[in-house]
Amino acid sequence: MTQLKESKQSRARKMMLWFGIASLLMTFAGWTSAYIVSSRREDWLTDFELPQAFWISTTILIISSLTYWMAVRSAKQDAQGKTRGWLYLTLALGLAFVAFQFKGFSAMIASGYYFTGPTSSITLSYVYLIAMVHLLHVAVGLISLGVVIYQQHKGAYGPGNMTGIEMGSTFWHFLDFLWLYLVLFFAFYR
């Protein structure tokens, strides 16, 4: 009876995660739609190039998705040491992603592109807004990853209990694919 209850709770938690992901998808779809509509403005920048740091951070995030996948795989095999190693590597890569995002913002500012003010542009205001909100969600993903690491140290994950690590991984992969979409959108939509 207890295992049935845990299975139902696991399904309910995963369903709530997917509802949250769907909500975030709609939010970012709305912002990218607004970006497209606003691109008809006369003051729209068409020659803006994303800083190199954003491309580096994209590569880092893709690699971190792979390391999180390896952590889940190791947990399923009950390889506790490997699981912890992959989780810590994912954390390091997540922090590197954040650092390169801020390098990208610094490069934009150094080029004279500001979020607001008399020298800002609507184009870059959208880029800042969307990238910063994504970065906020990455911060949530890092907190989630910290909880997963803490639980892993307590021996919480293994072949019989994968819910927490799988949910953390799902959210992390979502953030990865969302950023990949956003960076490609900004790079190729003029």
Automatic annotation (TrEMBL):
One of its GO terms (biological process) is aerobic electron transport chain. Keywords: Membrane, Transmembrane, Transmembrane helix. The keyword Cell cycle does not apply. It is found in: Cell membrane; Membrane. It is a multi-pass membrane protein. Belongs to the cytochrome c oxidase subunit 3 family. This is Cytochrome c oxidase subunit 3. It comes from Robiginitalea myxolifaciens.
